[in-house]
Design brief:
By secondary structure, this protein is of the alpha/beta class. Helix 1 runs parallel beside helix 2. It is globular. The strands form two sheets. Strands 4-3-2-1-10-11 form a six-stranded mixed β-sheet. A five-stranded mixed β-sheet has the order 5-6-7-9-8, with helices on one face. The termini are far apart. Helix 3 links the parallel strand 3 and strand 4. The longest helix has 21 residues. 35% of the residues lie in helices and 23% in strands. Bound molecules: ligand LP5 and manganese (II) ion (MN). Manganese (II) ion binds next to loops.
């Protein structure tokens, strides 16, 4: 079936150019060896609409387009920062936008892919915020605004979110184990892969019949990231890091 790669939470932003460079290098190199790449949300630090033509967005569009044109399929889930990624972005990059959660069959086992924010059910303030911004009409009203005012609103959300998070006990911002079990059982899946929490680890959950595995992906920062791969060799975690070329190191 070929190798599948899973990454999440790159939080690409002009403020972190080496993380962008790392991702570009990854798409032009390591990712090409895979049959399929899954991005499990928060590829961007913030996404205010497909019409935003900032240089970083153009660079990412181009790099993803080159990857899919080379024959590696790419599928994308929305995160809590970039849920406004739409069809125009998918068309320009050749990526497929998947619903969250999304179920795939790997070697006869049902694996569930999600960003992970919905599983944080103890974070009531966030879930309330989420319901509001995932509303179609609210999104349409937002998208009708100018890029400048959308940018300002997104910055205000980010500011308030950071303030709110500083007050929350860390446990609130992790997934709720009961929500994990219910989701797995409802979807009849035996494996879950998600990001969002930035707490990379492999967990085992006991279900009413049997057990399930939960693989949490790391976030990318300062030019260093992580991927999870599934191939004939099984499951592996790999470090992805930016390698400056000799010429740019001379500068
Ligand atoms: O993002 P992170 O990891 O810091 O925190 C998340 C949760 N926060 C969010 C909010 C985003 O960071 C900011 C939104 C991105 C902009 C997208 C584009 C604009 C959309 C337009 C709408 C159609 O997701 C945070 C969780 C944390 O993960 C861990 O799970 O706790 O949740 C919050 O912080 C929510 C707060 O608790 C409550 C909401 C504060 C914002 C209130 C907005 C007020 C209106 C402002 C008017 C301009
Ligand atoms: Mn997230």
């Amino acid at each position: 079936a070929g190798e599948a790669l899973f990454i999440s939470d790159l939080h690409l932003t002009p403020a972190q150019p080496t993380t962008l460079a790392c991702f570009q290098q990854f798409l032009a190199g390591r990712a090409r060896a895979a049959r399929r790449l899954y991005i499990l949300g928060d590829l961007f630090d913030v996404w205010i609409g497909d019409d935003d033509d900032a240089p970083l967005h153009q660079a990412v569009r181009q790099a993803l387009h080159d990857l899919t044109a080379s024959g590696t399929e790419c599928a994308l889930l929305h995160g809590n920062r970039d849920f406004l990624i739409g069809r125009a972005f998918a068309r320009a990059t050749g990526c497929r936008l998947l619903p969250d959660p999304y179920r795939i069959l790997l070697d006869g086992e049902l694996t569930l892919l999600l960003h992970g924010d919905q599983l944080c059910t103890d974070d009531l303030a966030y879930q309330r915020f989420r319901r509001r911004v995932r509303n179609r009409l609210v999104q349409q009203l937002f998208l009708w605004k100018s890029l400048a005012s959308r940018r300002a609103i997104a910055a205000e959300y980010r500011r308030r979110s950071a303030l709110a998070n500083a007050e929350k006990p860390p446990i609130i911002m992790d997934v709720n184990p009961q929500a994990v079990r219910e989701t797995l059982q409802r979807q009849r899946a035996t494996r879950l892969i998600h990001g969002h929490t930035h707490r990379p680890a492999n967990h085992t959950h006991t279900l009413t019949d049997g057990s399930a595995e939960r693989l949490v992906l790391a976030d990318w920062r300062e030019g260093v990231g992580e991927l999870l791969s599934y191939s004939a060799l099984g499951w592996r975690r790999e470090v992805v890091s930016f390698q400056p070329s000799a010429s740019s190191a001379d500068l």
